[in-house]
Amino acid sequence: MKTENQGLPLDIMELQMGPSHPATHGTIKFNLKLEGEKVLDCDVEVGFLHRGFDKSCEQATWTQVIPYTDRLNYASSLINNIGYALTVEKLIGVQTPPRCQYIRVIVSELARIYDHLTCCGMAASELGAITAGFYMIEARELIIRIVEALTGARLTVTYVRIGGVKHDLIEGFAERVAQTFKTIRKLLEDCDRLLSRNRIFLDRMSNVGIISQETALSYCLTGPILRASGVSYDVRTAFPYLVYDQFEFEVPVGSRGDNYDRFVCRIREIEQSMKIVEQALERLPVGPVWIDDPRFVLPEKEKVYGSIEGLMHHFKIIMEGIKVPPGETYAAVEGGNGELGFYIVSDGGGRPYRIRVRPPCFIAMGAFHEMIKGHMVADIVPTFGMVNMIGGECDR
Amino acid sequence: MILDVSQAQGDDVLILNRAGLRESFRLLKHDKELDYDFLSDITAVDYWGKKEPRFEVVYQILSRRRRRRLRLRVPVPENDPAVESVTPLWRGANFLEREVWDLFGIRFIGHPDLRRILLYDEFVGYPLRKDYPVNLVQPRVPERTVEGTFVDERSHNKLLSLKKSLGAS
């Protein structure tokens, strides 16, 4: 196949970018059709990190699935935990106590900040703005230290349980968060000065990877990508879960749907998330963090070691798993990258019959060719960066 | 077309007949009062030995304006696992339907490009079916030769000449 371009004959070149490419932080392959530097067509190949999440979950008990959900999106594992726990609780028909709900809101917003900082920091540093990238990574490290102090792990936290959270907030949590937010705001201000009037950054980001409102809706996109193209759809406000309806926050919406809008949307969302956390910490109610239901909650350790009933109770829950009534349900939470939904089917036993995750970035990768068509090869890097594909979630 | 209507845990659930499925979706999407304009998810469930027909394709759609979710379940028999594709209505269904085909072996009639997506082309069987054993080992696949791939032969020749020189001495 030959095309004429300013008198010079050009071959259409096929280039396979990936699966392991230094500029794509994630294992994914683009089969490109190029005319010089221009991308004519892009076929996205995913699945390099497929490890059978659904099938593994069917072998585990309901509680043992929680660590698997950590590994979906490492950047927001707390949101994954919460999404799964909420779905199972919905099928059981229980609601956690208010303090637990507030804690869940706090940790999921912390995870969202972490997710957005990862995405924006990586995208900035891939475009050469290493300084801004490292500022954001510093901010991310501060969040991760709070998460570590609270849960004991940096990434694979497994903090949420069906019917509660593992334990209450640690001492001095609120002060720690307040201090961290102060530093993060300062760091983000610095990043703003470094990036928002930076000619190179603007040229690389704006008017690249444009996706219109209709196309975004047709491709089932959610999260910052959809909001950047001007659709105000956020699961937290459209279908409020936990106690999100009690907080005041805005949903930032873009207008052009290009990479720069996505970037700004994410940065604005960090600010909103910090607001939510501050409000939640202010109003944090006192009370238990577990539901009072021995069918789903492990007994206290004194009872386990001190009485035969407690030991049997513990043994039954660990070995057989909690019993979830037969049925099927779907619940969604707003993850870092969009609507993170869980569809579960139970046959009444101690193990799930089927667990399906609606992975937001898998669906976003389905629209990637639409974003990149007609742009240059180098534009793949910022566009892919702003999609924030996380292999563990995309390929499951 | 509607086989059953139910409500569970506050969700609206419709069980639809697979005949005329795309028309049902068109109605749900374009009707001004229903206005289910957003497709959230497509997946399937294998009720092997539990239910007849064996498979169920599950769609999650929602109306952004009315703030309402709807779940559609479409029973699919084992001897002819195929449903109509909804890619003409939502282009995002492309990847989702490819995944269902890949993991369950349910065909989508009218899908523009029904290939495996998460697994490789040589994979035998459909792993999310309940009769697929968890510990089954797949056969090894020989390396694929992609037509038109540029292979640098010079390094080969170097190795060859090295071997030759070593063998000669």
What does this structure look like?
The complex is a heterodimer of chains A (396) and B (169). Chain A folds into two domains: 2-45, no CATH class; 53-289 and 324-395, Cytochrome-c3 Hydrogenase, chain B (Orthogonal Bundle). Chain A contains 17 helices and nine strands. Chain A has helices at 53-59, 65-70, 77-92, 98-126, 130-151, 173-195, 199-205, 213-218, 223-228, 235-238, 259-283, 301-306, 308-320, 360-365, 368-372, 380-387, 391-395; strands spanning 2-5, 8-17, 29-35, 38-45, 160-161, 164-165, 327-334, 339-346, 354-358. In chain A, helix 4 (98-126) packs antiparallel against helix 11 and helix 4 (98-126) packs antiparallel against helix 16 (380-387). With 169 residues, chain B is α/β, with parallel strands linked by helices. Chain B has one domain (2-168): 2-Layer Sandwich (Beta Polymerase, domain 2), CATH 3.30.460.80. Chain B is 22% helix and 27% strand. A five-stranded mixed sheet of chain B has the order 1-2-5-4-3. Chain B has a two-stranded parallel sheet with strand order 6-7. In chain B, strand 1 and strand 2 (11-16) form a beta hairpin. Chain B is elongated. The interface between A and B is large, with 43 and 36 residues.
Topology summary:
The complex is a heterodimer of chains A (396) and B (169).
Chain A lengths: L1 E4 L2 E10 L11 E7 L2 E8 L7 H7 L5 H6 L6 H16 L5 H29 L3 H22 L8 E2 L2 E2 L7 H23 L3 H7 L7 H6 L4 H6 L6 H4 L20 H25 L17 H6 L1 H13 L6 E8 L4 E8 L7 E5 L1 H6 L2 H5 L7 H8 L3 H5 L1
Antiparallel strand pairs in A: 1-2, 2-3, 3-4, 5-6, 7-8, 8-9
Helix pairs in contact in A: 3-4, 4-5, 4-11, 4-16, 5-6, 6-11
Chain B lengths: L1 E7 L2 E6 L4 H10 L7 E9 L8 E9 L4 E9 L5 E3 L8 H12 L2 E3 L44 H15 L1
Parallel strand pairs in B: 2-5, 6-7
Antiparallel strand pairs in B: 1-2, 3-4, 4-5
